[in-house]
């Protein structure tokens, strides 16, 4: 890769923010009434003999039916065109319409659409298929309007191959000055070359939507920019940190895709989302759909950390053009000015210093945009980089930055041309080609479509219901856990679900990566090799059904866990993708976070947060690690219960873990428990089913007997396994130990034998003897017993378990306090030997209690209502 051109060659022009422009220009009632009126809409399925409806319910007019009626948009110079159709369905196409029909031109031909003057979207769909005697690789297309060259000599098959896409979609915006919009299709010049097109969409758009007076930042004064006579080609349109938004969900028929693919560096920040609707402030409500503003990417919760990186997106472009970049903003967390202030860089040059979204909009949940122009000169690096960095000059409350959406358009050059050079050929398939290796520009033009469609595909294929996080960081307490499983009250979570099921009507194959990467980063295989020192065996930190887990280091020094799928492992591609889809959507203090993944070269690699203290099991027995105190064990069980509770209830559809065990509960450097390994997860029962039938998976010794018999999976199967975990924590022995006498082999049976006699204390971890209060042990034993009930119906929910464990902790701490009060020296002595936290001053105990109580009522304790806690506290015999 050539070095980045000196930034000075690139001129950053700032189109004065729409904010001021709307003040200046749109205050007049005439233009503010530029409410969306789509005067002209044509949707043509080229070559089709009849009208067709696509999977989004839109009707496409068959142009052959129109020509038959003598009222054609199509003018042929010499009548040399062919209506073609294909009966070969490609399952990777998003739809049959308009792709499976085409009009083939062997000489120049013109479509001309009667329109009213003004700006129009032109959308062109290309999917060359063989139609004897025409072969797909001879399709070479030039498309011109009267004024602009939209595409020049594009060898469609070549571009599709070079950019690894299944079809080509192009979107342009042109100003039509007369009463007709004409599209000339011209075949390439080689002997057999022909032009073709499958679908054409023409739709009027608000004239002033992307129009502005420009301010050159480096010069510091305002210059008129020749936009009125300029055509735009859409290069990228991203719903930052959000889901794909389909054409039918956008008032202007635009497609928005996720931004992950374009993020640079390991620091991805966090994906924020709210479910309440935002207001458009001074913007027109068609500027972007609500979902664009509802989701945003921001930095982390850690001020110091945020000063160490830029939140950066990188796009590849044709360097000889000028680009129009529109950034969409909406503050979702802070309602005051000077709480989040940041600099915006474009190609490493300051484009806007000290931007404060709330200062620009006047409040929280109000949308705004900033428009920039980037001029490139010959020889510039063909990349467009957007960077956000906290500006702390004004001492803002938080050092952070935010972005909700991006649109990048190419402007025609002075000759009216929009066509760049052809993309470089695709690297040989033997090389570990990474989708994050940016190719040339048209590569990305198409990829923006492919990537989005691919994401839709996998979503559909896996049948994963994407649910939105209704999580919002509170403006106070920037350090508190930011991901809350609480749905926002009053929000209809079904709206999200139904939106996705609309999406899943598209059955699309994958173009770029078969994995939707909504919140996780893509790593190339070479990056993974570097991270793990070529899978150095000394870095192995675990081995599971899936393969080995390595300790790795990111370029910024962050330690991560790299889980490499063994191609022959039982946990196959489906589980791999399930895990990515699930994990990248789930964020919770008690779930292990997925950082990214790698799919190159049929590798299946997952990169997680590194959990410094490893699996819980190692701290219970067998690894020679120091024993955990009873309080620590209770805290860990409570944490794991919260994680599972969140999986079961925090999502629109519950998620069943299916493999709850002590090796899947990991501990971070502070011994905070995090549930891991969703490889076997399946979404839980939907409303009309009470179970999910599935092959029995899971680990021996933890398996729900009911599930085993009937192969019916419910959340209560996780509850059973969690009961086994509780006993393992108490007894510090494996769930199955074949070396023991027969009646003791299965811990659950053995422990229940003693529990039923009220003598569970006989078999607890010797280390704990004398260090657990009777009451706490009793509560804990009862809880485990209920979890292990033969019938799922008799087992408690994770929420019930959570509160019983909290209560067991409370009982333990109360008794510890009581013991503090006695002056019995023997008790003191025991305390000293035992758990460090028992050896506390009275104020410490008070503090502990208070913090514990507040924790019970804090957001982190999620769904179960405060009254449930309260009733349990006032009525200790209650449960
Ligand atoms: C297709 O739709 C157009 C516009 O709605 C209509 O004029 C035309 O008659 C329809 N053609 C057929 C074959 O139904
Ligand atoms: C288009 O590109 C393909 C390679 O992808 C090549 O085989 C074909 O000859 C090209 N077509 C023309 C008309 O140049
Ligand atoms: C379109 O072109 C006409 C004629 O050149 C011009 O008056 C008008 O301002 C242009 N409108 C837009 C939205 O570019
Ligand atoms: C936008 O606002 C107009 C009224 O100004 C309203 O009729 C229209 O439904 C709104 N559109 C959306 C997508 O909210
Ligand atoms: C952020 O980006 C700007 C512009 O590229 C650069 O000058 C600065 O050093 C970057 N800061 C960090 C911490 O990477
Ligand atoms: C950019 O334009 C220059 C001449 O103006 C040309 O030599 C160069 O090949 C072009 N580069 C690209 C990437 O189109
Ligand atoms: C922060 O804002 C000030 C004032 O606009 C500006 O001079 C400075 O370059 C910005 N960036 C940093 C990193 O201070
Ligand atoms: C785009 O093309 C038109 C027509 O050739 C021209 O008038 C206009 O200046 C061009 N725009 C730019 C930014 O060069
Ligand atoms: C940005 O993308 C270009 C080409 O796609 C690549 O050469 C460059 O290394 C990327 N920059 C970063 C910082 O990733």
Automatic annotation (TrEMBL):
Q: Where is this region: Disordered?
A: 414-441, 843-879
Q: Where is the composition biased (Pro residues)?
A: 420-432
- Record InterPro entries: Kinase-like_dom_sf, Malectin-like_Carb-bd_dom, Prot_kinase_dom, Protein_kinase_ATP_BS, Ser-Thr/Tyr_kinase_cat_dom, Ser/Thr_kinase_AS
Query: Mind telling me which GO cellular component terms the entry cites?
Result: plasma membrane
Endpoints of the signal sequence? 1-33
Q: Which SUPFAM superfamilies match?
A: Protein kinase-like (PK-like) (SSF56112)
Q: Which GO terms describe its biological process?
A: single fertilization
Domain of life of the native organism: Eukaryota
Q: Where is the Protein kinase domain?
A: 535-808
The protein's name in its UniProt record: non-specific serine/threonine protein kinase
């Amino acid at each position: 890769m050539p070095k980045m051109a000196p930034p000075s060659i690139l001129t950053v022009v700032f189109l004065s923010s729409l904010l001021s422009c709307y003040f200046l220009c749109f205050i007049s009632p005439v233009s503010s009434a530029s409410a969306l009126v789509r005067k002209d809409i044509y949707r043509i399925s080229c070559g089709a003999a009849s009208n067709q409806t696509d999977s989004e319910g839109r009707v496409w007019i068959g142009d052959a039916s129109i020509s038959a009626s003598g009222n054609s948009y199509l003018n042929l110079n010499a009548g040399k065109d062919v209506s073609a159709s294909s009966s070969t369905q490609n399952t990777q196409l998003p739809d049959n319409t308009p792709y499976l029909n085409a009009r083939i031109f062997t000489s120049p031909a013109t479509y001309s659409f009667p329109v009213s003057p003004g700006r129009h979207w032109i959308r062109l769909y290309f999917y060359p298929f063989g139609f004897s005697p025409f072969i797909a690789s001879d399709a070479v297309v030039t498309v011109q309007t009267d004024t602009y060259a939209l595409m020049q000599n594009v060898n469609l098959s070549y571009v599709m191959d070079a950019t690894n896409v299944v079809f080509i979609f192009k979107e342009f915006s042109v100003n039509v000055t007369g009463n007709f919009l004409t599209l000339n299709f011209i075949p390439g010049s080689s002997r057999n070359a022909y032009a073709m097109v499958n679908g054409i969409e023409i739709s009027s758009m608000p004239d002033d939507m992307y129009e502005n007076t420009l301010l050159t930042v480096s010069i510091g004064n305002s210059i008129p920019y020749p936009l009125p006579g300029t055509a735009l080609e859409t290069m990228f349109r991203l719903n930052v940190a959000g889901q794909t938004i389909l054409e039918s969900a956008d008032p202007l028929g635009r497609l928005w895709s996720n931004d992950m693919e374009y993020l640079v560096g390991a620091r991805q920040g966090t994906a924020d989302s709210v479910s309440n609707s935002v207001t458009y402030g001074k913007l027109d409500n068609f500027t972007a759909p609500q979902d664009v503003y509802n989701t945003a990417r921001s930095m982390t919760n850690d001020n110091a950390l945020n000063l160490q990186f830029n939140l950066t997106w990188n796009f590849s472009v044709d360097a000889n053009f000028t680009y129009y970049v529109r950034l969409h903003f909406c503050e979702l967390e802070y309602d005051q000015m000077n709480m989040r202030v940041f600099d915006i860089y474009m190609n490493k040059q300051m484009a806007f210093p000290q931007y404060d979204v709330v200062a620009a909009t006047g409040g929280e949940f109000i949308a705004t945009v900033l428009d920039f122009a980037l001029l490139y000169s010959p020889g510039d690096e063909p990349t467009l980089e957007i960077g956000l960095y906290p500006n702390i000059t004004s001492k803002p409350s938080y050092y952070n930055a935010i972005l909700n959406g991006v649109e990048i358009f190419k402007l025609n050059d002075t000759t009216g041309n929009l066509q760049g050079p052809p993309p470089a050929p695709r690297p040989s398939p033997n090389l570990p080609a990474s989708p994050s290796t940016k190719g040339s520009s048209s590569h990305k033009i198409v990829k923006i479509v492919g990537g989005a469609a691919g994401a839709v595909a996998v979503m559909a294929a896996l049948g994963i219901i994407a649910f939105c996080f209704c999580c919002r960081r509170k403006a106070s307490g920037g350090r508190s856990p930011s991901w809350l499983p609480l749905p926002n009250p009053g929000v209809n979570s079904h709206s999200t679900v139904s939106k996705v099921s609309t999406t899943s009507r598209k059955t699309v194959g994958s173009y770029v990566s078969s994995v939707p990467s909504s919140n996780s980063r893509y790593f190339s295989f070479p990056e993974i090799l570097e991270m793990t020192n070529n899978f150095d065996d000394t870095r192995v930190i675990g081995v599971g059904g899936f393969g080995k887990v390595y300790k790795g280091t990111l370029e910024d020094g962050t330690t991560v866990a790299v889980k490499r799928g063994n191609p022959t492992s039982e946990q196959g591609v489906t589980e791999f993708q399930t895990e990515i889809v699930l994990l990248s959507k789930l964020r919770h203090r008690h779930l292990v976070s997925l950082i990214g993944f790698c799919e190159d070269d049929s590798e299946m690699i997952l990169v997680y947060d590194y959990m410094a203290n490893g699996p819980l099991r190692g701290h219970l027995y067998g690894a020679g690690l120091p024993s955990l105190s009873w309080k620590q064990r209770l805290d860990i069980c409570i944490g794991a219960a919260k994680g599972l509770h969140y999986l079961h209830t925090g999502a629109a559809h519950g998620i069943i873990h299916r493999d709850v065990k002590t090796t899947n509960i990991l501990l971070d450097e502070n011994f905070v428990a995090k549930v891991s390994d969703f490889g076997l997860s399946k979404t839980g029962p939907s409303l009309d089913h009470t179970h999910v039938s599935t092959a029995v998976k899971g680990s021996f010794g933890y398996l729900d007997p009911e599930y085993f018999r009937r192969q019916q999976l419910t959340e209560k199967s996780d509850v059973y396994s969690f009961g086994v975990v509780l006993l393992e924590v108490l007894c510090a022995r494996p769930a199955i130990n074949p070396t023991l006498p027969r009646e003791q082999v299965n811990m659950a049976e053995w422990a229940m034998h003693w529990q039923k006699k009220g003598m569970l204390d006989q078999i607890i971890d010797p280390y704990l003897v004398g260090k657990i209060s009777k009451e706490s042990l009793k509560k804990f034993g009862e809880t485990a017993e209920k979890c292990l009930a033969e019938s799922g119906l008799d087992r408690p929910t994770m929420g019930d378990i959570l509160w019983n464990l909290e209560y067991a902790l409370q009982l333990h701490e109360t008794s510890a306090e009581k013991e503090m009060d006695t002056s019995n020296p023997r008790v003191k002595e025991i305390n000293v030997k035992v758990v460090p936290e028992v050896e506390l001053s009275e104020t410490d105990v008070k503090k502990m209690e208070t913090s514990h109580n507040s924790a019970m009522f804090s957001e982190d304790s999620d769904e179960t209502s405060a009254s449930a806690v309260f009733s349990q506290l006032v009525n200790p015999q209650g449960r």
